[in-house]
C-alpha cells in the first residue's frame, strides 16, 4: 500500500466495513497501533479482490474510534458501552481516547455523588405525614416554592439554590444547613432556626423572619430588602455586604454581628441591640463636658455628663458609645446621600456621550433606561436597580456594584474588568462578548445568563449560581469556580484551563 496521506483506506473490522484516510488514522494518535500500521513503514496485507485491510476485532465500536480520530470528541454512551470502548482503545493503543473515557467515567461518578436525594414530588408526598425530617438530605436546586413546609426539620441538609419562594416554612429548622444562593423571596419564615447556617448570597427579600434565630449564621451578601426581622436573634451573624435596605429590625439582637459594608439605608436601629457589632465607617467625635452641658442644661446629654450618673466608656477608644450613636446619625445620612437622582440621570443621558466615572449612585432605580455606552468606571453602584435596562457597551471598570440588580438587562459588549459584583443579580441577563477579567462575582446570581464569548479570565465565581447559563466559547481561564452551581451547563466549548472547580455542582453539566 502507498503512503499517500490523503488516500482512502478500506478497513474490515470483524466483518464490518469502514472507509477513512491515512491522515485520520495517523495524525491525532501518532503512537497508536493504527498509526504504526499505516505509517508506510510496514507492509499491510489487503484483500486481493476489494482491497480491504482486515483487523480481527469486534467492529461494534470502531465507528466511535474513527469519530474520535476525526474530531477528538468522546462519544456519549451507556456506562457498559464505555467499558467496551475502553477495551478497544487499549487494544489500538489510543492513549488520548483512553484518558477521555476515564475522565467521563470519573465525572459520572462525581455527578452521582451530587445527585439530589429527592424530587419535588417526593417532598410533597413526605409532607403529608405528621412529622417530617430531611436532616442531612441533598435537595440542592429543587423547586419547593409555594409548598407548606411548616415545622419540617432540614438541619444539616444541602439546600443550595433551592427555590422556597412563597413557601410556608414557619417553625422549620435549618440548623447548620448549606443554603447558599437559596431563594426565600416572600417566604414565611417565622420562628425558624438558622443557627450556624450558610446563607451566603441567599434571597430573603420581603420574607417574614419574625422571631427567627440566625445565631452565627453566614449571611454575607444576602438580599434582605424589606425583610421583617422583628425580634429576630442575629447574635454573631455575618452580614458583611448584605443588603438590608428597609428591613424591620424592631427589637432585633445584632450583638457582635458583622455588618461591615452592609447596606442599612431606611433602617430604624433605635430598638436594635448593636452591642459589639462591627459597623466599620462609623464616625467618632471629640468634645468637652462644657459643650455638652451648658447650652441645653436639661438635655439627656447634659444629664449624662452632669456627674450624677455613671457613663460606660469604650475601654479601647475612650469614646462614649451612647453619644456617638446620637451625634453620628445625621452625618451618616449625609454621607449616604447620592450625588445624582434618577431624574438627574435621565437628563444626563440625553447628551451624546455620558460619563458617571466615580459618581455615587448606590440604591438608585435605573431600571428600563437606555444607558448604552455610558461610562460608570469607578462608580459606586451598590444595590442599584438596572433591571431591564439597556446597558450595551457600557463601561463598569472597577465599579463597586455589590448587590446590584441587572435582572433581564442587556449587557452585551460591556466591560466589568476588576468590578465588585458580589451577590449581584444577573439572572437572564444578556452578557454576550462582555469582559469580567479579575471581577469578583462571589455568590452572584447568573441563572440562564447568556455569557457567549464572554471573557471571565481570573474572575472569582465562588458560590455563584450559573444554572442553565450559556457558556459557548466563554473564557474561564484561571477563574475560581469553587462551590459554584453549574448544573445543566454546557462546558464543552468553554476554556477552563487552570480554573478551580473544587466543590462545584456539575450535575447534568456537559463537559
From TrEMBL:
A Pfam cross-reference name: Pentapeptide
InterPro entries: 5peptide_repeat, BTB/POZ_dom, Pentapeptide-BTB/POZ_domain, SKP1/BTB/POZ_sf, T1-type_BTB
Any GO BP: protein homooligomerization
Functional pathway: Protein modification; protein ubiquitination
SMART domains per UniProt: BTB (SM00225)
Domain BTB: start-end pairs: 7-78
Domain of life: Eukaryota
Name recorded for this polypeptide: BTB domain-containing protein
Amino acid at each position: 500500500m502507498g503512503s499517500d496521506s490523503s488516500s482512502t483506506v478500506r478497513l474490515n473490522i470483524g466483518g464490518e466495513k469502514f472507509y477513512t484516510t491515512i491522515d485520520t488514522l495517523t495524525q491525532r494518535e501518532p503512537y497508536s497501533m493504527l498509526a504504526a500500521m499505516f505509517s508506510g513503514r510496514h507492509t499491510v496485507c489487503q484483500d486481493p479482490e476489494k482491497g480491504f485491510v482486515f483487523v480481527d476485532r469486534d467492529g461494534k465500536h470502531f465507528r466511535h474510534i474513527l469519530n474520535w480520530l476525526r474530531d477528538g470528541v468522546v462519544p456519549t454512551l451507556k456506562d457498559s458501552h464505555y467499558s467496551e470502548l475502553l477495551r478497544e482503545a487499549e487494544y489500538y493503543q489510543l492513549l488520548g481516547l483512553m484518558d477521555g473515557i476515564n475522565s467521563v467515567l470519573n465525572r459520572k461518578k462525581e455527578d452521582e455523588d451530587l445527585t439530589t436525594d429527592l424530587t419535588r414530588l417526593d417532598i410533597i408526598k413526605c409532607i403529608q405525614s405528621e412529622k417530617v425530617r430531611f436532616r442531612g438530605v441533598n435537595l440542592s436546586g429543587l423547586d419547593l416554592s409555594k409548598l407548606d413546609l411548616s415545622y419540617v426539620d432540614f438541619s444539616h441538609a444541602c439546600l443550595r439554590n433551592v427555590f422556597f419562594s412563597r413557601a410556608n416554612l414557619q417553625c422549620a429548622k435549618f440548623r447548620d444547613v448549606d443554603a447558599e444562593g437559596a431563594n426565600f423571596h416572600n417566604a414565611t419564615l417565622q420562628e425558624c432556626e438558622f443557627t450556624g447556617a450558610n446563607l451566603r448570597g441567599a434571597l430573603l427579600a420581603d420574607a417574614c423572619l419574625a422571631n427567627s434565630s440566625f445565631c452565627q449564621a453566614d449571611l454575607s451578601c444576602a438580599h434582605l430588602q424589606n425583610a421583617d426581622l422583628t425580634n429576630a436573634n442575629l447574635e454573631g451573624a455575618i452580614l458583611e455586604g448584605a443588603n438590608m435596605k428597609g428591613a424591620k429590625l424592631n427589637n432585633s439582637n445584632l450583638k457582635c454581628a458583622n455588618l461591615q459594608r452592609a447596606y442599612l439605608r431606611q433602617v430604624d436601629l433605635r430598638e436594635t441591640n448593636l452591642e459589639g457589632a462591627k459597623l466599620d465607617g462609623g464616625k467618632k467625635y471629640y468634645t468637652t463636658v462644657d459643650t455638652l452641658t451648658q447650652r441645653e442644661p436639661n438635655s439627656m446629654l447634659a444629664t449624662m455628663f452632669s456627674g450624677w450618673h455613671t457613663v460606660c466608656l469604650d475601654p479601647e477608644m475612650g469614646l462614649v458609645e451612647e453619644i456617638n450613636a446620637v451625634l453620628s446619625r445625621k452625618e451618616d445620612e449625609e454621607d449616604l446621600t447620592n450625588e445624582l437622582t434618577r431624574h438627574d440621570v435621565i437628563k444626563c443621558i440625553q447628551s451624546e456621550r455620558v460619563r458617571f466615572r466615580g459618581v455615587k449612585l448606590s440604591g438608585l432605580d435605573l431600571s428600563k433606561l437606555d444607558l448604552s455606552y455610558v461610562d460608570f468606571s469607578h462608580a459606586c453602584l451598590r444595590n442599584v436597580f438596572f433591571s431591564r435596562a439597556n446597558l450595551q457597551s457600557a463601561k463598569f471598570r472597577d465599579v463597586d456594584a455589590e448587590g446590584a440588580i441587572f435582572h433581564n438587562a442587556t449587557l452585551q459588549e460591556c466591560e466589568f474588568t476588576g468590578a465588585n459584583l458580589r451577590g449581584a443579580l444577573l439572572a437572564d441577563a444578556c452578557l454576550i462578548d462582555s469582559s469580567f477579567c479579575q471581577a469578583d462575582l462571589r455568590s452572584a446570581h447568573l441563572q440562564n445568563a447568556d455569557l457567549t464569548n464572554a471573557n471571565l479570565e481570573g474572575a472569582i465565581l465562588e458560590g455563584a449560581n450559573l444554572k442553565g447559563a450559556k457558556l459557548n466559547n466563554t473564557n474561564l481561564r484561571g477563574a475560581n469556580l469553587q462551590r459554584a452551581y453549574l448544573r445543566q451547563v454546557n462546558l464543552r466549548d468553554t476554556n477552563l484551563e487552570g480554573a478551580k472547580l473544587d466543590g462545584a455542582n456539575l450535575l447534568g453539566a456537559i463537559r
